[in-house]
Amino acid sequence: MLDIVIEVKNLTRFYKLKEGNKIALDNVSFDVKQGEVFGLLGPNGAGKTTTIKILTTLLLPTAGEAKVLGLDVVTESQKIRDNINFVYGGERGVYGRLTGKEYMYYFCTLYKVKHREQQALIERLLDLVGLKDAENQIIHTYSKGMIQRLHIARSLINEPKLLFLDEPTIGLDPVGAKLLRDLVRELSNRGITIILTTHYMQEADDLCDRIAFIRDGKISTIGEPIQIKESCNHLNLYEAFMSLDQTNALQKDKMFKNLEVDELKDPFVHLKFETDSLAETEITSYLEQFGQVLKLRKREISLEDAYIYLMKDAG
Ligand SMILES: Nc1ncnc2c1ncn2[C@@H]1O[C@H](COP(=O)(O)OP(=O)(O)O)[C@@H](O)[C@H]1O
Ligand SMILES: [Mg+2]
Question: For ligand 1, atom 1, which residue shows the shortest CA distance?
Answer without folding.
Answer: 15
